[in-house]
Structure formats: structure tokens, C-alpha cells
Write a structure and sequence with these properties.
The protein is an alpha/beta fold. It has three domains: 102 residues, no CATH class; 114 residues, Rossmann fold; 71 residues, no CATH class. It is built from 13 helices and ten strands. The strands form two sheets. The protein has a five-stranded antiparallel beta sheet with strand order 4-3-2-1-5. A five-stranded parallel beta sheet has the order 7-8-6-9-10, sandwiched between helices. It is globular and about 70 Å long. About 18% of the residues have low confidence. Bound molecules: 2'-deoxycytidine-5'-monophosphate. 2'-deoxycytidine-5'-monophosphate binds next to helix 5, helix 8 and helix 12.
């Protein structure tokens, strides 16, 4: 079997936009997937197809009816670029294309939980980019409440002020730069213990998750409380020492200085508060996949997560 990968060189509105995967051999076995500019995905199989469908006209380049595509013919059309790829590359790209199929039919949710500094934010961003899903760092919602109280010099245990601030949180206007200060994170961990505050924010987070095509949400209680039916649950962790080391390196990389043992003590304290609170404590959902990033670079964590997600999607496709 030989494999060819064809893609469109330009985005064409209302036309298949940028990707088109195809495999063909002498027996006209042929699988195709197309991505459209509006974000939908077309899926077609010819020959001894998985779903029995056949004879689907693809792209108008004449390559689909005559056995293996004529690469020279495809490349003579300036809109396309075709190349023969290895079986491994083809399968990888094909699985990614299949994975994108959920966008047509299903709101897809990836829940990521874990302690501060384990790398879940970066991982969430990489996965949202890769699978073209919406992204919500739910920590920012708790930070926004804490920030409002700090701004008005209100004590962090003023629950009714915290509830009012929670109601006013607008997920579209969360300003990461403004909310990123360490002190705001500490304060967020304190206001996050109040069940009424949580309920207001959780409602907003659930609405966000329901918006097509779905979302990656990261936080502390996503797999357990916010989205207990998430398609994929990941629990990302790393030792407190590694997390403290990473935080120190981050501070030093922007010219700051800090003390390792103070950072470590801070992290341990925050873990205890987030894991020890009565309402929605940080803990892995029983069906979460555990990812320990202590000895893993972010790229390795991304690949591990992607394997988990692609496997789940492939199983669902077979079901
Ligand atoms: O992830 P972060 O550091 O931005 O979160 C700040 C605090 O917010 C965290 O210490 C606990 C709280 N939080 C929470 O209770 N539940 C979430 N889903 C997200 C964050």
C-alpha cells in the first residue's frame, strides 16, 4: 500500500479549506477527510470501507477513481500540494483527522486537574490548539473574584462580597496578565473554599464547556465536579520540589530572585488548602488518567496526553 497526503495551499471560503487526507491503492481502496473553512469536517470512505459507503467525488482533481493518485497531475493544479508519505506518517495524520471528526457531531470536553505549577496550563493550551477546542483556565475565575476583593480592600472572608464579585465575572474578559500575580493566586485559593462562590463560578464554567465544538478546561475540580462526564480526564501532577524549582527558574528567567525553600513552603501550603477544603477538593477523578510531569518536559506531556485522547477517539470510532 502506498500513501499520499494532499493539502490545499490556500484557505478557500466555502471550499474544503486546508487539509485533505487520502490513501489509495490499486484496488481503489480510498479514505478521505476534508476540513472546511467553517470548521466542519467531511469524511468519506471508498472501496471496502469501514462504513460501506462508496464512490465519493473528492476535490475534483480526478485522482479518486483511477487507483493511486497521480501526484504529478495533482501538483499541476496550483491549489494543491501532494506528496507520498510513509505509512507511519499517514496513520498519524489520519488519526488526527479522525480525531477532528468529533467537531461535527459532539461537544467534546477535556478536563485537566492538578496542583499549581504542574504544567496543566501549558498542556491545556497545547491541547486546545491541537484539537481546535475552546480553552478555559478556571483558576482565572477564582483569581478574578480574589482580585475584586483585593481591589476594594475587602477581607477575603467577606462571602457576600465574594458572591457579588463571582456573579460579575465575565469569562470573555479574564485578563491573565492582570490576574497572574502570586498574591492573587494565594487569595484565590482562600476565596475558593466558599461553596456559594464556587457554585456561581461552576455554573459559568459548565456553560462555557457546553459551547460547540467543546473545550479544554483546567483547574482543580473539573473532572470531579464541573464536568464529571468529560470525554477525557487528565490529572497532571509533579512533586512539590520540582514545581518549586520550575517556579524559581521562571522568576529568575525574568530577572527576579526568590528563595527556594520559601517557594516550596508556599506550594505545600497551597496544596494543603486546595486538597483539604471540604467543598470540591483537589483530587483525581476515579476515571482520570494520571500524568506525572516531574521528569517530563512539556512536549513529552503533550504527546502522552495526545496518545490518550487519540486512543479514546479511535475506540469511540470503532464502537
Ligand atoms: O490554577 P490557579 O493557580 O490559577 O488557581 C488559583 C486558585 O484557585 C487555586 O489555588 C484554587 C482555586 N481554584 C479552584 O478552587 N478550583 C478551580 N477549578 C481552579 C482554581
Amino acid at each position: 500500500m502506498r500513501y499520499v497526503f494532499v493539502h490545499w495551499k490556500h484557505d478557500i471560503p466555502e471550499e474544503p479549506s486546508h487539509l485533505w487526507y487520502e490513501v489509495a491503492d490499486d484496488n481503489f481502496q480510498n479514505r478521505t477527510i476534508e476540513f472546511y473553512a467553517d470548521g466542519s469536517v467531511g469524511f468519506a470512505i471508498r472501496g471496502p470501507a469501514l462504513d460501506g459507503s462508496e464512490d465519493i467525488e473528492v476535490g475534483g482533481t480526478g485522482n479518486s477513481t483511477e487507483g493511486f493518485p497521480d501526484l504529478a497531475e495533482i501538483n499541476s493544479d496550483s491549489q494543491f500540494e501532494a506528496s507520498e508519505v510513509t505509512a507511519v506518517d499517514f496513520e498519524r495524520q489520519w488519526r488526527e483527522a479522525l480525531a477532528s471528526r468529533f467537531r461535527m457531531t459532539h461537544v467534546f470536553t477535556i478536563a485537566i486537574d492538578g496542583p499549581a505549577g504542574a504544567g496543566k496550563g501549558t498542556l491545556a493550551r497545547r491541547l486546545a490548539d491541537h484539537y481546535r477546542l475552546n480553552l478555559l483556565d478556571t483558576g482565572l475565575t477564582y483569581r478574578a473574584v480574589a482580585y475584586a476583593l483585593l481591589q476594594h480592600a475587602l477581607p477575603l472572608d467577606n462571602v457576600s462580597a465574594a458572591e457579588t464579585a463571582a456573579r460579575q465575572v465575565d469569562l470573555a474578559k479574564l485578563d491573565r496578565a492582570m490576574l497572574s500575580a502570586h498574591a492573587v493566586g494565594e487569595a484565590a485559593s482562600k476565596v475558593a473554599v466558599y461553596p456559594t462562590v464556587r457554585r456561581i463560578l461552576v455554573e459559568k464554567q459548565r456553560d462555557f464547556a457546553k459551547t460547540p465544538p467543546g473545550a479544554v478546561l483546567d483547574g482543580r475540580d473539573i473532572g470531579t465536579v464541573v464536568c464529571p462526564d468529560a470525554d477525557i480526564k487528565l490529572y497532571v501532577t509533579a512533586s512539590a520540589e520540582v514545581r518549586a524549582q520550575r517556579r524559581l527558574a521562571e522568576i529568575e528567567s525574568i530577572g527576579g530572585s526568590a528563595n527556594f525553600s520559601e517557594i516550596l513552603a508556599d506550594i505545600v501550603r497551597r496544596d494543603e488548602r486546595d486538597m483539604g477544603r471540604a467543598d470540591s477538593p483537589l483530587k483525581p477523578a476515579t476515571d482520570a488518567h494520571l500524568l506525572d510531569t516531574s521528569e517530563m518536559a512539556i512536549e513529552a506531556a503533550f504527546l502522552a496526553a495526545k496518545t490518550i485522547i487519540d486512543d479514546a477517539l479511535a475506540k469511540r470510532d470503532k464502537a
